[in-house]
């Protein structure tokens, strides 16, 4: 089965990027474009809220919690994360977080 996904984008919730579109607008656009799942990955902030998840579900989209975390001067996307991921500052801490949260998925968002 193939799914259309976007696992790395920002919204106006992002504290570090001046993004004009809200999470609701991003969900609307994703639905319009036929996405099955998306992940909001704001910089150093887990921005997914229950109301975003419910809204995405009403549009037929799986909303994945995520964060684009700056760790040792590198950007790392952590999917299926929670607020605890906001406190990670080293790759050793990320490894411990992964060990206690085996369902997370870690990717490099860009070179």
TrEMBL record:
InterPro entries: PHP_dom (IPR004013), Pol/histidinol_Pase-like (IPR016195). Pfam families: PHP. Residues 25-82 form the PHP domain. SUPFAM superfamilies: PHP domain-like. GO terms for molecular function: catalytic activity. Residues 1-21 are annotated as: Disordered. This is PHP domain protein.
């Amino acid at each position: 089965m193939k799914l259309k996904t976007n696992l790395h984008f920002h919204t106006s919730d992002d504290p570090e990027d001046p993004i004009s579109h809200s999470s609701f607008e991003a969900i609307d656009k994703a639905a319009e474009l036929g996405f099955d799942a998306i992940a909001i990955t704001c910089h150093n902030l887990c921005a997914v809220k229950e109301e975003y998840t419910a809204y995405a579900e009403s549009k037929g989209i799986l909303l994945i919690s995520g964060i684009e975390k700056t760790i040792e001067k590198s950007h790392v996307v952590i999917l299926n994360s929670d607020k605890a991921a906001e406190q990670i500052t080293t790759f050793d801490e990320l490894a411990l977080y992964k060990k206690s949260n085996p369902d997370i998925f870690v990717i490099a968002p860009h070179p």
